[in-house]
Design brief:
This protein is of the alpha/beta class. Helices cover about 30% and strands about 20% of the residues. A 5-stranded parallel β-sheet has the order 2-1-3-4-5, sandwiched between helices.
């Protein structure tokens, strides 16, 4: 159940991360691979962007620990109810954050993550096949 963009349009990925260096790294990685990227520092800003973009966002890639009253797990829950076609990838470097904390359909990848893992997951989640644009070779056996 991937969000599908119109033919020829770049899939839109929303990166939610309060650490500027990590947000820049994720955004640059995704942009270089042919995605359109929007950045947000907080979950509240991410929700505002999702409202503004009205279905244009395919994937949200968020840290679990975000500043403000809404964290990554709650963000994933809200997205799952409000925008069920948007795929969610959560990440955390805190050993206390576990995939078992997810109560909605989302994928969890611990930090430090590998670029190839993120790209493979986002490519699939965005519904992009190799003939739809630049990407990476599929590696490993993990799937969302």
């Amino acid at each position: 159940m991937s969000a599908v963009n119109p033919s020829g349009a770049k899939p839109v990925i929303l990166v939610v991360e309060d650490e500027p260096d990590e947000r820049f790294l994720a955004a640059a990685l995704l942009e270089e691979t042919g995605f359109s990227v929007i950045e947000a520092e907080t979950a509240e800003r991410a929700l505002a962007i999702l409202n503004e973009k009205d279905g244009a966002v395919s994937v949200v890639f968020s840290d679990v620990r975000t500043p403000g009253p809404i964290g990554g797990f709650e963000l994933a829950r809200i997205i799952g109810v409000t925008w069920p076609r948007v795929r969610v990838l959560l990440t955390s470097g805190d050993a206390g954050d576990q995939p078992s904390d997810l109560r909605v359909s989302a994928t969890f990848i611990p930090k430090p993550w590998r670029a190839s893992d993120i790209l493979a997951w986002v490519e699939e989640a965005a519904g992009r096949t190799p003939e739809q644009g630049p990407g990476i070779d599929r590696i490993g056996g993990t799937s969302p």
